[in-house]
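Researcher: I'm preparing a figure for a lab meeting and need a structural model of a single chain. I don't have an experimental structure, so a prediction will have to do for now. The sequence is pasted below. Please return the structure as tokens so I can convert it later.
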Amino acid sequence: MSQSQNAPAFDTTVDAVEQTKHLKKSFGRKEILAFTICTLVGVDSVGQIASQGPRAITMLLFFALAFFIPQSLLFAELGTAFPQEGGPYLWARIAFGRLVATINNMLYWVTNPVWFGGTLSVVAAATLETFFRNGKPLSTFWFYLFTMLFIWVGTFATILSFKVGKYIPISGAYARFVLLGVFTLAVVMYGAKHGVHTPHLSDMTINYAGFVGLTGILIFALCGFELPNAAGDEMIDPKRDVPYSLIRAAIAGIVLYGVPITCVLMVLPIDQVTSLGGFIDAIKTVFTVFGGSVDAKGVATLTGSGAVMGGVAGVLFILCTLSSGVAWIMGSDRALAVSGYDGAAPRWLGEISEKHGTPVRVNILSGAVASITVFAAHQISGGNLGKYFTVVISIAVSTTVLSYLAIYPALWKLRNSHPEQPRPYKAPFGKFISAWLTCLVLFAGAQLLFPGIGSAWFGNDYRPDGWAQAEKWKYFLTEAVPLAIFVIVGFLFWVSGKKTREEKAA
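Model: Understood. Here is the structure written out token by token.
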């Protein structure tokens, strides 16, 4: 990796020096802001959070103050003090060494192709069914055709030079604001005509079970501030642009989650808010004010102008899901490629294209993993999109949450080990923030593996939907086995990089 001005002193491989020459600087302030909004605000998470009921609003406010904002401050410091390519991998690598960093980086990377293929493509397919097929399910053939097209359009965008590929995240950021604006207007019109569900204060109170149920998914939904720094050497001026963009993205993220979740709960009865279709169903319901009706069972049908508006919303929604996947794949693939030429992964993964300035081999690998995930999860779930969504999102949440166990404490460690490193921005109470966020992900990780531990492990208030008390060890294995496999693969990656890391640059 390149030793740019004010870069910290650490051993650099010959391959790192050679490959970073292929990177192209085209990542400015506006791009960082749009990119961060796409990584922070995933429309697929709105239904998942809203399905927890009115208490989700209280938890979202708590996490905005106790997690979202502190996280933005922590990454503003790390991203300006250590702005080189690789971001989250680099910080863990300097703080804790290559072995810890590469295992952590495996969890960080693998989440994204699994999520892209196993969650985002399914949400996009459900959106297609809702707004363009009047709820009629896609046949197996058309499901696979649509999801493969979705995945490989996104993969192709990550392969292109950032100067070109960045337009999907940029357009996705704008799509979020347009979709939110039209949806909010429709909710106001719908409420004036039909009334809304106003939650009671008692429904918004949080107990231990509610905190356990929402902590993991909220961490998953609200992380991503660090991802632009995975392209650190492609930024034009990271020391100036990173703090500016992250603080504004934090404000935008709170609004872009808070408004739709509140609106969903105001429009739909809580028993109709599903993890997969909650936000989609709410959009369809309120768009009946433009043309359409809602029957006695709460099923919405759009006609005339309502159908046209629904089609526009469907396109915007699919663009939002695509841009989330593209932004995360762009960032996490770069982190994996950096570990490849840094001697912490197979060398062939660390190849940066001279033509595009992108890690094409890792990009294709991500597309392949996403495609395999589609086929595997579809077969396991028997084609049930709701069940498919639940299976994959639980694995994605686990790997995401645990991948921050070497990232958040890096700030504390680097303040101690590299106190002389210039810090253009220094987070207030930085060590406390670092310790607090680390404790929070430790708690969330424990609850994902052992729901309800500390109260009633796998009890009725903590057990995931569809699981029986007698299946607690089966559930544990469905979460723990993939994590163990990823850790082992990470270790093998580190072993395979021995030759590369021994060839140090002068």
